Amino acid sequence: MMSAEVDNTVDAGPVARRGGLISIRVCAFMLVLYALYFARSLAVPIVTAMVVYLVLRPIVRHGSRIGIPPSIGAIGTMLGILVLLGLGTYLVIQPAQEIIADTPRHLVVVKEKLSFITERLRAVDAATEELAETAEAEEVGVAEEETPVPVEIKQANWASNLSYLSGTGNIVSFLTICGALLYFLLATGDDLLRSIMRTLPSFTARRRLIEVIQNVQEGLGSYLAQVSVINAGLGVAVGTAMGLLGMPSPIVWGVMAFAFNFIPMIGAVAGACIIFVTALVNFEATYYAFVVTGTFLTLTSIEGQFLTPAILGRSMSMSPVLVFLSIVIWGWMWGLMGVFLSIPILIAMRMACEGFEGLTPLATILGAESTDHEPQTNKAAETQTEKCVVEVSTEVVSFNGPSTT
């Protein structure tokens, strides 16, 4: 009897430990998500600065190779980015202000032009209410005295978010934290990396860290650079098409297409809705609004279905399900900035998982190429390893004594 109990304990041990380990990982994952949600006012600028740092780091490092100090290179790079952002803002600020100022009038016009739809919906609602009242009267009968009708005043769903949109303090805090952290990362990020690598126990661990950082940097930089060029072309095409179709302020629509296209799927739908409302207001014929919106959707479809897959290829292909879930989750946690950061975060997670053997299945799920044909890629892997060894030994690792193996 005693031996049977011992055998049962031994058999259930691995299963219990495995279940406990899974539970711990799930709880840890949920705690991390909650921490990121709770500290979003601090986490969003930090993550934004790190993503921008990984993209701009090669520029500063190239400058340091030709004799420009990292601190000066960081200032020059950030000034260049600010000049580009300021130029773009200058081009669209006045037309955008006019569009925002005319929004109440536009809503009235849209309501009038779509009145044939609202009238039919009201007729359906009235018929439904009449049938419901008739059925209730037959079942309950006429009430002896009238009961007071409860009146409830509801605000629009977007009214509760106005305080967030008008949070000037939040915007200033975001820009301050993000800008300061970005400068320090660009100016002293390699020094911090050297300090971290001194704490690692072996040369192999240091090399793996460098490989992961290089993979994330190259993946993010390549993706954002190529997507930026594609979106710029789409913005030019949309702006030109809107100008030819007679839409007001075509530059605004080109910039909108450029910015919204960084959000896969959802950006095109949001842009189409905005263009449809604007076209409905500015043109007498209702059908012409559908023509303008159809032109915009055609251009975005050509870009999304043909140009982007042809340029990015399979190396950056991701499951639409994972992309949509990433947008929804990070948008729910961090708002608009989470929507824009969702794809870079997904790419960084995939590139980081590719650097660790235990996380290779997760990297494959996130869209990494299958490693079934390992013998054919050994030579390329060895070349990459040798490159990382040289990088570690010449630029990153600076020890007082010989490295331990």
Automatic annotation (TrEMBL):
<feature type="transmembrane region" description="Helical">
    <location>
        <begin position="43"/>
        <end position="60"/>
    </location>
</feature>
<feature type="transmembrane region" description="Helical">
    <location>
        <begin position="72"/>
        <end position="93"/>
    </location>
</feature>
<dbReference type="Pfam" id="PF01594">
    <property type="entry name" value="AI-2E_transport"/>
</dbReference>
<keyword id="KW-1133">Transmembrane helix</keyword>
<dbReference type="GO" id="GO:0016020">
    <property type="term" value="C:membrane"/>
</dbReference>
<dbReference type="GO" id="GO:0055085">
    <property type="term" value="P:transmembrane transport"/>
</dbReference>
<feature type="transmembrane region" description="Helical">
    <location>
        <begin position="171"/>
        <end position="188"/>
    </location>
</feature>
<feature type="transmembrane region" description="Helical">
    <location>
        <begin position="322"/>
        <end position="347"/>
    </location>
</feature>
<feature type="transmembrane region" description="Helical">
    <location>
        <begin position="251"/>
        <end position="278"/>
    </location>
</feature>
<keyword id="KW-0472">Membrane</keyword>
<feature type="transmembrane region" description="Helical">
    <location>
        <begin position="223"/>
        <end position="245"/>
    </location>
</feature>
<protein>
    <submittedName>
        <fullName>Pheromone autoinducer 2 transporter</fullName>
    </submittedName>
</protein>
<comment type="similarity">
    <text>Belongs to the autoinducer-2 exporter (AI-2E) (TC 2.A.86) family.</text>
</comment>
<feature type="transmembrane region" description="Helical">
    <location>
        <begin position="285"/>
        <end position="302"/>
    </location>
</feature>
<dbReference type="InterPro" id="IPR002549">
    <property type="entry name" value="AI-2E-like"/>
</dbReference>
<feature type="transmembrane region" description="Helical">
    <location>
        <begin position="20"/>
        <end position="37"/>
    </location>
</feature>
<keyword id="KW-0812">Transmembrane</keyword>
